[in-house]
Every structure is written in structure tokens, then in C-alpha cells.
């Protein structure tokens, strides 16, 4: 009997070592970040030619700390600051604009600050940041939306929601925007005869947003995403030494190209070097370089808006992007 127990424990440890992506990957809360990227991907399809920026960290002069912004949709003639709420259960709006959510299964009631007011505050901070970088926006150019992205959400008296709130039912029914001068969200703002934003200003905004501070991001297997801050690599000394050149000032992205069977042979990383040059708006020079390290090597990552530090094995990672 003891022999069978010992064999079972050995098999379990081998499974955890070679097949499991690690406890940190299995139990980490990735749903909110994953929802951001899912919404961003659909917005890019709904608005052909638009740019969607995910996980901005815009400097806030009032608090002297970065302000997190879920999404910014930049289309011709408009910019939309979007908050994605991955809430589930019954959602209702109180008279003061705050929300109450009740779980469908656990009967847990939670209070949420007015998400629209918070999004408008973020838009104001973003507008100030853009002005500091030389892009003054026309009046009415910047708007706000809050999207309920979770299919398990149920809105109570949805008619009481402000028009800036996109319920899940409305979200899934949205169709690709026809190619016209203005998008559906902004047509009302331009009825007074305002012209479309000049192409040069549009390009400048694209450049500013593409070079704005953002959260680092991990793309995990299973189409999961994590936003936060990359701290360091952990593992065998020779593996960490091989990855020493991966620094924020030099590297924008790394891709785990191959993971060896059962982890016996080293994984292959294909690393993209990008020389960032903020003096011009031209394309940055880049090159690919491959390094071989063990699949058990870990990425130490601090989750956004949290003091928790997580470790992710390279075998569980598809790619990592680093903000400048």
C-alpha cells in the first residue's frame, strides 16, 4: 500500500513539475485584464482603422501618481476614454450614481463608486496630459463610455443608466461602423458643423498615445492577459545571466517561441530589441535575437493596482511587452 502511495506522490510531483503552469498561473485573477483586451480587439473590428490603447498610466499632476485608464479609442475625429467593467450579477444604479452589484449565486452585495464620474475624471487627466505634450483637443472631441463586458451581468432598470453606459446586451448588438466622417458615438457632438480633425493632429495624437506610459503586459496561454510591472527573472544563474540584456530601456517585447517537451530541453525565447527615439515620430529600429533558457525560468511580475507579486513560468507565457 505504501508503495502505491509513494508512486502516486512521485507521479503527482512529476506532473506538477512538467505539465502544470504553476500555482501562480492557475489561481491568478486574469479576468479583468483579459476583458480589457477582448473589448479592445472588438472595438478595433467595429471601427475600421481606429487605434485602441490598453492600460495607460497617465501622469496626474494633482496626485503626483499615474492614473490608470482602461482603454482609449482613437478614431478619425474622436477620442473615447473607456472603462471596462467585468462585473457579474445584478447591477442597479443608486440616485447618487453609484452602483450596487449582487452576486447571482453567493448573494453577496457590493457597492461601487460611480464609474461614469470616475471615467470623466480620467478623461480630464488625459486631456491635460495631451495638452502638456502639445496636443490641444477641440471642444467636444473627447468623450467617455463605460462598457459592461461580462455576459453574466444583469442590469436592473437599464433605462436608468446614463447613455454613456453600454450594457452587455447593447455591447453584443453593436455592428461595425459604416465608413463615414464620424462614428456613431460622436455624430451628435458634431451636428453643430464642426469639421473632422486634421490628419496631422490625428497622427500626433497617435504618436503621443503610443509613447505614453503604459502597464507592462503578459500574454498567457489560453488567451489570458495580465497587466502590471515586470520586476525581474528568477531561475538558474546561467539563465538569468542570459536574459540580463532584457531591460526596459532597450526591449519592447519578448516572445516565447518554443517550449521543450516535458521541460527537459531549454525553451527558446525570441526577443525583440527596440531602440526608442522620442525626438522624432519616425519608426524605431528593431532587431530579433534568440536566447535559450530553461522553461522553468520565471518572470516576476507585480499586478496592477496591487501590492501582490506573482511568478510566471516561461512555459505559461506567450509574450511580454514592456512599457518605455
Fold and architecture overview:
The chain has 324 residues and is an alpha+beta fold. It has 2 domains: 31-210, Trna Endonuclease, Chain: A, domain 1 (3-Layer(aba) Sandwich); 215-321, no CATH class. The protein has helices at 2-18, 23-27, 31-46, 115-132, 168-173, 199-210, 237-242, and strands at residues 51-60, 65-75, 78-85, 89-93, 99-102, 109-112, 142-148, 153-155, 165-166, 216-220, 224-234, 251-258, 267-275, 285-293, 298-303, 309-313, 317-321. Mean pLDDT is 80; it is low at 1-5, 7-28, 186-194 and 278-283. InterPro entries: NERD. It comes from Rosa chinensis.
Describe the SSE topology:
Elements: H1 2-18, H2 23-27, H3 31-46, E1 51-60, E2 65-75, E3 78-85, E4 89-93, E5 99-102, E6 109-112, H4 115-132, E7 142-148, E8 153-155, E9 165-166, H5 168-173, H6 199-210, E10 216-220, E11 224-234, H7 237-242, E12 251-258, E13 267-275, E14 285-293, E15 298-303, E16 309-313, E17 317-321
Parallel strand pairs: 3-7, 4-8, 7-9
Antiparallel strand pairs: 1-2, 2-3, 4-5, 5-6, 10-11, 10-17, 11-15, 12-13, 12-17, 13-14, 15-16
Amino acid at each position: 500500500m505504501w508503495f502505491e502511495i509513494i508512486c502516486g506522490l512521485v507521479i503527482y510531483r512529476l506532473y506538477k513539475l512538467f505539465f502544470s503552469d504553476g500555482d501562480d498561473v492557475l489561481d491568478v485573477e486574469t479576468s479583468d485584464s483579459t476583458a480589457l483586451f477582448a473589448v479592445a480587439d472588438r472595438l478595433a473590428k467595429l471601427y475600421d482603422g481606429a487605434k485602441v490603447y490598453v492600460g495607460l498610466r497617465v501622469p496626474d499632476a494633482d496626485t503626483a501618481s499615474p492614473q490608470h485608464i482602461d482603454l482609449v479609442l482613437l478614431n478619425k475625429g474622436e477620442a473615447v476614454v473607456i472603462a471596462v467593467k467585468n462585473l457579474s450579477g445584478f447591477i442597479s444604479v443608486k440616485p447618487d450614481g453609484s452602483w450596487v452589484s449582487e452576486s447571482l449565486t453567493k448573494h453577496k452585495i457590493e457597492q461601487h463608486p460611480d464609474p461614469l464620474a470616475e471615467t470623466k475624471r480620467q478623461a480630464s487627466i488625459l486631456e491635460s496630459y495631451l495638452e502638456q505634450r502639445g496636443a490641444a483637443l477641440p471642444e467636444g472631441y473627447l468623450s467617455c463610455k463605460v462598457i459592461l463586458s461580462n455576459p453574466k451581468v444583469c442590469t436592473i432598470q437599464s433605462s436608468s443608466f446614463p447613455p454613456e453606459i453600454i450594457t452587455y446586451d447593447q455591447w453584443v448588438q453593436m455592428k461595425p461602423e459604416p465608413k463615414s466622417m464620424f462614428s456613431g458615438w460622436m455624430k451628435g457632438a458634431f451636428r453643430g458643423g464642426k469639421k473632422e480633425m486634421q490628419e496631422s493632429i490625428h497622427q500626433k495624437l497617435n504618436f503621443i498615445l503610443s509613447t505614453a506610459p503604459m502597464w507592462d503586459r503578459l500574454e498567457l496561454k489560453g488567451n489570458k492577459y495580465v497587466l502590471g510591472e515586470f520586476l525581474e527573472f528568477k531561475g538558474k544563474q546561467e539563465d538569468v545571466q542570459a536574459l540580463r540584456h532584457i531591460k526596459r530601456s532597450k526591449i519592447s517585447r519578448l516572445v516565447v517561441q518554443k517550449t521543450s517537451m516535458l521541460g527537459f530541453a531549454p525553451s527558446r525565447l525570441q526577443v525583440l530589441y527596440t531602440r526608442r527615439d522620442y525626438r522624432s515620430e519616425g519608426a524605431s529600429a528593431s532587431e530579433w535575437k534568440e536566447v535559450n533558457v530553461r522553461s522553468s525560468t520565471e518572470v516576476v511580475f507585480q499586478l496592477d493596482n496591487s501590492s501582490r507579486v506573482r511568478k510566471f513560468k516561461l512555459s505559461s507565457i506567450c509574450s511580454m511587452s514592456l512599457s518605455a
